[in-house]
Amino acid sequence: MTTKEGPVAAGRLMRIHEVAAEVRLTPRSVRYYEELGLLKPAARSDGDYRLYDETDVERLRFIKALRDDAGFSLAEIAQLLEDEAARERGHAAYHATTDPVERMRILHDRLARFDHQIEMLRTKIERLQAMVDETEGRRTGTAARINELESSGAESAR
Amino acid sequence: MTTKEGPVAAGRLMRIHEVAAEVRLTPRSVRYYEELGLLKPAARSDGDYRLYDETDVERLRFIKALRDDAGFSLAEIAQLLEDEAARERGHAAYHATTDPVERMRILHDRLARFDHQIEMLRTKIERLQAMVDETEGRRTGTAARINELESSGAESAR
DNA sequence: CCCAACTCTCACGTAAACGGCAAGGTTGGG
DNA sequence: CCCAACCTTGCCGTTTACGTGAGAGTTGGG
Question: Which of A148, B57, B67, B149 has its CA 20 to 30 A from that of A20?
Fold first, then answer.
């Protein structure tokens, strides 16, 4: 009943410390991300243990990359990935309807979200590139001064 | 006596709220960055007011970019820029000595730091690019499904 | 069935990066 | 010289992103 069904992910389910180790996070962080609505385990055991599948792992990896590499806050990541609640609704809705128009809408929605993600990342890349360019400029200045010194006093070098 | 001298920066000096406004930071943050050793005002007034010059503004801009765009922590930024203390020592040392060998060493040092900065930024760019690629992969999959639906049920669309 | 290892949900503690206030000092135009 | 607007150094408060138990329950191999 808490099972995330779906057409994929028939592999085995993992417990929280397993996925945490896999993506190099702590169980605490994974639970915290769930608390913020970043993801929801594929299932729960009878004893209410969180159980994760491969897609959860991928999602966690993506979250970690967004946090570590892109430096987004968890709040921003929540925006980018949208609440897991909304995502699940979208997924369920897709399989609940046979209406192709509705399915179309959902797919276009998903496409738009991917485009948004790509755009945010691209923007970040551009800014970083600008910083690289600037730093290279300074580097060139320093390198020039080295050349000056090197050619002016040309004798004491090893 | 607290003046940062140097051959450049003869422009006028600004007070903390001016530079803060200029680089879109709060005076509080600027003081905090100083506390962490990220920068030091060019001078102090008689009444001990912090006074900044144009190079300080540039430095602050760079710091902000590293924080906002690259997502580095202030501690990491401190590493990248090295303690202002060390920087100042290097600068003073450069002008204190006339020994070309010593000057050479200082310049090569500076060059190495630039190279390190560039490398860190490049690494970050590569990771972001990898994320873009991955997201584009997913996007392509969704786009394909849209095409399927579009050609299979080709009549109900507006 | 037993027990070690794992998990659950509170709940409080912490480091980073500031925000905001207090109590007092400084600046500079009128 | 006066005063509004700015600044100073403390110092405590807050948010984010977790760490760290506490107390109780679950799992699974022997």
Answer: B67
